Amino acid sequence: MKKIVSLLLAVVLCCSLISGCSKTAPMTAEKEKTTPGSGEVKKEESDPDKWPTVSFAICTLQGVTDMDIVNQALNDYLISINAGVLANIVDFELGNIGTTLTLMLTSSDNPIDIFTDCFYTNLTGAVSNEQCIPLDEYLEQYPEVVDMIGEQFLACGQLNGIQYGLPVVSSHATSNCYALRRDIAESIGVADKEGEMLDYDELTDMLIKAKELFPDLCFFIDATVSYGIGVDNMGDSSYEGVLLNRGIDTAEVVNFYESETFMNYLEYAQKWKNAGLFLTDPLNADRAVATNLKNGVAGGEFCGGYSIEAVKSSMNTYGDYVVFKINEPVANASSGGSLYYISSVCKYPDAAMKMLSLLYTDPVVAKFVAQGIEGRHYVVDENGCSWFADGKDLSNVNWVAGCATYFPNGTLTYPFETDNSAYFSNMLESNRTCKVTDGLGFVFDNSSVYDEYSAVANVVDEYLLALIYAEVDIDTMLPEFQKELKAAGIDSVIAEKQAQYDAFLNNK
Q: Which residues belong to the signal peptide in this entry (predicted)?
C-alpha cells in the first residue's frame, strides 16, 4: 500500500516493538483512579451545548493547521446523528509524544480522555502506571465494538482477565515473505513463481544467482527482521524465552539461543555472508530497510503482511517487487498490536466509551479522524481508493495521511494511495481465516525477574548483531554468548515466563 510508509516504516517497526514486543514492562500497581459508569446507557441530552467533549489525539510527522476545521466538521456530524458527545481532536508531534501524553495522563486541568499506547507504552505499562480503566462493563453495553474487533482478538487488551485496552482493527496475523525486485526476478527466471512458498535452501540458491548478475547489490539489509522467523517471541524483542514453530501446537517456552531454529539460522547467515548477500559492513552501516531499498543499495529483503497482495501494496512504495512466501499467516502471542484506552483522568468515561464506539463502528467518524475532509485532504477515485487532493502531499496536506492503522478502525476508511480497493476487506477476511494459536493475548510480566531480564537483554545487545550477520567466528562466539546468557539469568526468566504462560492457558 503506497502509504506514507516510506517515511513511517521505521516508526511502524518501532511501534510493533513498543506495543507488541515490549509487553514486558514491570507491573507495579493495579489501582485505577476512575471507574466505569453504572452500566446503564443514559438518555442523550438533546442540547449539544450540554454534551460532554471527549479528547483524543492524532499523531503527525509534520505541522497540522486544519485542526479546527476537522473538529468542526466532525462535531457537525456528531450533532446531526444526535451522538450525545462531542470531539476534541488534539495533535501530538511524534517526537514529543512521550512527554506530552505523560503530562496529559496525570493532569486534571488538561487531561486526555482516550489514548493509544502506539509510540508510547504498552499494556502492562498503562496498567501498572494507573493510566487506564477497565472496560469490561462497557463492552457489555457496546457489543457492536466487540463484533468489529473480533471476540478472539480482545485477549490482546486483557491483563489478569481484565479488559483494559481495545485492539485496533488491523491485521492480527502475519506471513513472512521475501520481496525481490521484479527486474532481478525476471533476469534470473523466477518472476513467474510469485506467491510460491520457498524454504531457506531455495531462497539462498535464488539470491546467489541474483548476486552473480547484480554484484553491487545486497539482498539482506536488517538481519533482526529475519533471525526470529519461525518462532513466537511472545512479545519480547530480546527473545528471552520463545515458543518454537511460531507457537503452533506447543506450550513449551525454550531458550531460543540454544534452539535448533537459531542454530539453523546461523548456518544460513554464514552462507549469506560468504556469498556477499548481506549489507556491506552491517554493524556500522545504516540498516534502515526503507533507505536501502529506495536508494538502490538492496535488491530485496524479508518483509511481512497478512497476504501476498498486502505485502505487494506496501512494497510498491519502493518499486515493483515479486513476493515469495516463507510461511502462512499466523496470529500468536507476538500479535499484540496497539491498543486504545480510556484514561484514568477522564472526567466523563461513559462519554469516552461512546466516542470509542463511534471510532470503531462509524465510517464517517473514522474517515474524519484518520483522513480529514474529502476534497480538501484527500480525493476518492472510481474504485473507492483515496489519494492526496490535488496539489497536496505529506508536507502540506495539513492532516494525517496514510496512517489508518494508527486509529481504532482504519478498515472503515478508504485505502490510501493504492489501486487495491480490497485492501481492508481482505485484511478482515485474513483475521477471520488465519491460524490463531493459544498464545494470542499472552502478556509477560517481568517484574519478579526484572534484574535478570535486563541483564539478559544487555547480553543480547552485546552479542547478537555480530552473530546474526556472521561478522565473527560463530563457533567461538556462540558458546561464549550462551554462557553469558546463563550467567545473566536467562533460565530464571524462562522459568517465570513458562509459569505465567501455563497459568494463562489454564485460565482461558
A: 1-24
The predicted model scores a pTM of: 0.82
Whether pLDDT at 9 is above 90: no
Residue 255's nearest CA partner among 1, 505, 473, 492 is 492
Cβ contact 253:333 at 8 Å: no
User: Which of 340, 414, 405, 338 is closest to 372 using CA atoms?
Assistant: 414
Three-class DSSP category at 122: coil
Strand partners, 343: 132
Maximum separation of any 2 CA atoms in the chain, in Å: 74
- The single-letter DSSP state of residue 20 is I
Q: Helices H, strands E: what count in the chain?
A: 17, 17
Which helix (H) or strand (E) segment holds residue 478: the answer is helix 474-488
384: CB partners within 8 A, 6+ apart: 414, 415, 421
Determine the 3-state secondary structure of 216 from DSSP.
Answer: coil
CATH 3.40.190.10 for domain 175-331, yes or no, is yes
CA-CA distance, 477 to 491, in Å (whole number)? 20
Mean pLDDT of 285-309: 95
User: Can you point out the beta strands (E) in 147-192?
Assistant: 158-159, 162-163, 166-167, 175-181
Domains 47-170+336-434 and 175-331 alike in fold: yes
Lowest-confidence pick of 34-48, 143-157, 232-246, 312-326: 34-48
Count the Cβ atoms, other than its own, within 10 Å of residue 331: 27
pLDDT digits (tens, 9 = 90+) for 135-177: 999 999 999 999 999 999 999 999 988 999 999 999 999 999 9
Q: Which residues contact 272 (CB under 8 A, 6 or more apart)?
A: 204, 207, 219, 220, 278, 470
Q: Which three cell numbers stand for residue 461?
A: 545487545
Task: For the chain, give the number of residues.
Answer: 508
Half-sphere exposure of 285 (CA within 13 A, CB side): 19
Q: Which three cell numbers stand for residue 299?
A: 535488491
Residue 418's closest CA among 304, 307, 314, 305? 314
Residues 6+ apart with CB under 8 A from 204: 268, 271, 272, 275
Cα dihedral: 293, 397, 367, 389 (round 10): -90
- The contacts of residue 485 (CB under 8 Å, 6+ apart) are 255, 257, 456, 459, 460
Instruction: Indicate the burial class of 251 (C-beta count within 10 angstroms; 0-12, 13-18, 19 or more).
Output: middle
Instruction: Spell out the domain ranges in the chain.
Output: 47-170+336-434, 175-331, 447-506
Mean pLDDT of 352-377: 98
φ, ψ at 177 (rounded to 5°): -140, 170
CATH says 47-170+336-434 is which class? alpha beta
Measure the CA–CA gap between 461 and 465, rounded to whole angstroms: 7
- What is the per-residue pLDDT for 45? 72
**Mean pLDDT, the chain, whole residue set:** 90
